[in-house]
Write a structure and sequence with these properties.
The protein has helices at about 155-160, 165-170, 210-215, 275-295, 325-340, 360-370, and strands at about 5, 15-20, 30-35, 35-45, 45-50, 65-70, 70-75, 80, 85-90, 110-115, 115-120, 140-145, 150, 185-190, 195-205, 220-230, 235-240, 245-255, 260-270, 305. By secondary structure, it is α+β, with helices and mostly antiparallel strands.
Length: about 375
Amino acid sequence: MTHRLKNTTAALRHGWHPVARSGEVADEPVAVRLLGDPWVIARLDDGLAAFADRCPHRLAPLSAGRVDARELVCGYHGWRFVASGDCTAVPALGPGVPAPKRAKATPPWGVVERHGLIWLAPAEPFTDLIEIPEADEAGFDSVWLEPSRSSACAGLLADNFLDTAHFPFVHADTIGAGEDTIVGPYRVTQDGDGFVVQMEQRVANPEDPKVATGDHPLVQRRWSTYVYRPPFMLRLRLEYPDAGMINTIQFCLQPEDAGSTRIYTRLLRDDLGGDAARRAEAARFEQAVLDEDLALQERFDLDGLPLIAADGDPAEEVSIRADAAGVALRRALASLVDQAARLPATGSGRSAGGRDRPLTAARRTEFRRTKIR
């Protein structure tokens, strides 16, 4: 039996997902897609709000409306909604006439702003947001790549990010130049619902300025630490002790639809010194590396990431020692699917498969507040 995690697998509703860069949501509502569903994001008063992108009246997209201070106004008939989803006015009924009881926009479990991104959790998430400690450390420059989009599923893209054995082959023109094809043993440590990968390598470091002058060799020592939080939040800290530089990559994925994943990449580096030209060059180089990955990933003929079966069936893939991080990813995502499947049905919420569970209004509000770091 084939077990694959697709971009529309219902269990993924129990996770935090990036749905926009912070700067993409300003004074007007913004339409986004997540796990095959349409959502609208808006800034109402001093906070964020999110709703299923359908007005309860005639199912018009709320993203086609406008923001009026603390309310989102439907562009079709002018119905008004506050951040809780409550309808405050129905123009066709006249002033002072209350809206029908069922006239409520549907919010997700939570929406929050952090790490330069807006995150949405359709149902109660099993895992907290990933931390990016370098964002608060002095001396680090923050550089965002423009969001990319791929036809590959989010699971495959996360697996590719964790994979180092492909460097000499896919990245021969960038980070893989001169790299040994042998991947030595490395450590994978369970960390809550996610894990941490630590390895020491010798790799090309063309971004070290002293390589060009001949003072440093191209191939240098590198200490790599990957941090993964399900479903698709990753951080990679690269320390080059010979060059005295640290390069951290924040890599987060938005599974939009069955054949579409949006990719958010941020660099945090302590060697750029605020130099605009070097920041631009760092972004250009990282984009070149990402483009090499996407060119191959988009040629995969897979509708999802193969997971490790828990029922004794043989795995769909053949894995080796070098794939320890990828195996850990598959196990973590398989655990998420199993956890969602074991959720009990409730009278007021909805059950397994990742649909909404009942929560207090106070707890929903807590996670809907805008938080910026």
